[in-house]
Amino acid sequence: SINPFNWLFTGWKYRQLKPKLVVIRFWLPFMGPCLGTIGRIIKSNKTSRIIAITDNVIPHEKRPGDSVFTSYFLKSCHGYVTMSKKVLEDLNTFIQNKPALFNPHPLYTSFKEGISKASACNELALDPNTNYLLFFGFIRAYKGLDILLKALAKIDTAKYKLKLLVAGEFYEDETPYKELVKDLNLDQNVNFYSDFIPDNQVHLYFSAADITVQPYKDATQSGVTQVSYFYNKPMIVTNVGGLPELVENGKAGYVTEITPEAIAAAIEKFYDEQQLQPMSDFVAIEKQKYSWDKMMDSLWSVAKVNQ
Questions:
Q1: What's the CA gap between 263 and 236, in Å, rounded?
Q2: Helices 276-286 & 223-230, crossing angle to 10 degrees?
Q3: Rounded CA gap, 137 and 170, in Å?
Q4: Which of 52, 130, 232, 285 is deepest in the core (most CB within 10 A)?
Q5: Percent of the chain at pLDDT above 70?
Q6: Number of separate helices (H) and strands (E) present in the chain
Q7: Gap between the Cα atoms of 170 and 45, Å rounded
Q8: Each residue's pLDDT tens digit, 48-57
């Protein structure tokens, strides 16, 4: 991605193949020069339509040059599919008069099927009689793990037999988080699994957990939501970006404000009202609308060519 000769080689290779549709995934401004150059070369064949699936248009963590790199890439495309309404709005600040659609991310289907909680806990050396919250994915400042830890400290964890599983790599210094755990006296209530988690182990963490928590401070959408749907897991998400679009409040989980108090209240409500089974049943039905066929229909639609 940092070798311009590779961009030229890749662009010319696909220019000659003349595919009807080329789909480019865009998630980071840094990739703009690379992907924008490849797209321009391919579409110079006057045959291929270049469509972007845009995770983000405005990044969570801003850096100099973001707007220039993003604009360069977006102008190389014929159309766009965004996975949250917020990104669709952000797109309008860069591009007008080109087709664009919102289509939620389809379900992830590459993971192993879920197993019983008892089996998953056995594999992870956990007590199956404990209730587990799950924070899953890369750990970065905007994902709000610190808020979740502060929320956990406000809950009577002994009463709810509650622990938090943090499963994901640190993409920043882990020291502040580990110190926060100690300061909040949560050493016995938080399990960190900070090595890279391969696809064939993802099912263990979701199967062991009762509910996933996404306490994000900023977001467009999150793949964790769709993994939760795959495993029929309810979710607690904060009211930011596109997260509330995919989690029906009170049915698929809870949408809260970005405060420890609000998240703690949602966790207590989930257990007090015994919502595990009814919410899991709702998620199992709701997830059926997130199909790959629908995503493909959206891609062909914005490409404005026949399949």
A1: 8
A2: 100
A3: 9
A4: 52
A5: 98
A6: 14, 10
A7: 43
A8: 999 999 988 8
